[in-house]
Amino acid sequence: MSAPLIIICGATATGKSDLALEVAEKFNGEIINADSMQLYKGMDIGTAKLSPAERQGIPHHLLDILKVDEAASVAQYQALARTAVDEIRSKGKAAVIVGGTGLYIKAIIDEMNFPETDPLLRRKLEEEAELLGTAELYSRLRLLDSEAAAAIEPANTRRVIRALEVIEVTGAPYSANLPSDTSHRYPDALHIGLAMDRASLAPRIESRVHRMFENGLVDEVESLIQDGLLTGPTAQRAIGYAQVIAMKNGEITEDQAIAETIVATRQYVRRQETWFKRDQRIQWIGEGQSRLAFIEQRLNS
pLDDT digits over 254-268, tens only? Predict the structure, then answer.
């Protein structure tokens, strides 16, 4: 049997990183990050990135590869991640993809089309965003392509603009350029999803957010601002970071920043669930199930 490729996905705070470590240790694997914000160097506390010590000596790929003032690119990520998958498996080791950014996972596994950009159209949309606000453009996207809108953070101006740009350039919905489940780069991949009831997940999210602030998220943001966080088109909009920036600007208090981060995380969880539930290849592990035993059984079946 060829070296396995195991995908561990699911909503925020469901325990993906811990399971990935167990799987990598059990099956002699290396881990590939599929969390778009963990690509950024220095964004550690707010993204729940495992520290080097917590990685238990297991190689992790695609962490800390971008500066906070750089834009993240799905096309660039796809190329790097596929190279990592192929190199890991060529050594006879398991490749373990872990994260909650559904688009990034699908970019690795499925064939995707990346339409060309139109600089003039892009600038026009950017000017509209500045004049009318991102919410107005997001409303437009919901009317044109509700499926794409469901997968995009409403406050993520860059992605909203990109979706509208693709729709106008191609004459087709943005979601039509997303991969289908019928064209696979790695058809032998084992897709594992971690499911958790909302009632169980809610206190985990609250605890996680409070812990982030207690562990120094505000200091982390202050340090990253010195590194160019406020000039980056992507990183400054990350959940938790955006709220701390608003707090530092005097727009909200720290208590409000914590509360708004909890709300934003819950909303993100709902979008993650919507995205992943569409993929019929995912085999879900519910609460109370032995996760490692479930995966071992699937690999041996």
Answer: 999 999 999 999 999
pLDDT in tens, 48-71: 999 999 999 999 999 999 999 998
Taking alpha carbons only, the member of 283, 290, 269 closest to residue 201 is: 269
Q: Which long-range contacts (CB under 8 A, 24 or more apart) does 145-149 make?
A: 145/173, 145/174, 145/175, 147/173, 147/175, 148/173, 148/174, 148/175, 148/178
Domains of the chain: 5-112+183-197+279-300 (3.40.50.300), 119-177 (1.10.20.140), 200-269 (1.10.287.890)
What whole-number distance in Å separates Cα of residue 134 and Cα of residue 155? 6
Rounded to 5°, the CA angle 289-291-295 comes to 125
pTM of the model: 0.83
